[in-house]
Fold this protein.
Amino acid sequence: MSLSQRPPVGWRRPGFVVSSDPGRIDRPAVLAALRATYWAEALTAEALDRAIENSISFAVYEEGTGATVGFARVVSDLATFAWLADVVVFDGFRGRGLGHWMTACVLNHPDLQGLRRWQLATRDAHAMYRRFGFEDPPAGRILTRPGTLRAPDSSEVLDLPG
């Protein structure tokens, strides 16, 4: 079962609902919100669709209108590791604690309990995530590889040192 096919879970607070039902997500609204961020300016609709289909996605909805006003997703093996990604609260809804609440809902999703490690990347929200127990990794522990690099030819990687 793909991550997007897992049974949806929901949470309520006055005026808002968080749901992990990917069928409810207003994808054009999420795409517009993500394109306005520093990390997803060039995101395509096709890439967002693929990301949602291969993640547990969460959206915040305004209770009266049903409008999508926030989004986050988690990529996980559901056993040991989860990556929190694309957390965004839409303009006009920031400053109401919705990002904190959505993050708490994500961390409380029943399929994401007992994992050994959670990770995320942020340029400017360290303080918020530290409230939830995220911390800087020890120096030299995390390596990243830009997705723009060409994959090596497997026939060339026979016996490389290191």
The helical segments are 27-35, 45-53, 98-107, 126-130. The beta strands are 10-13, 16-19, 56-62, 68-76, 81-89, 117-120. The chain has a mean pLDDT of 92.
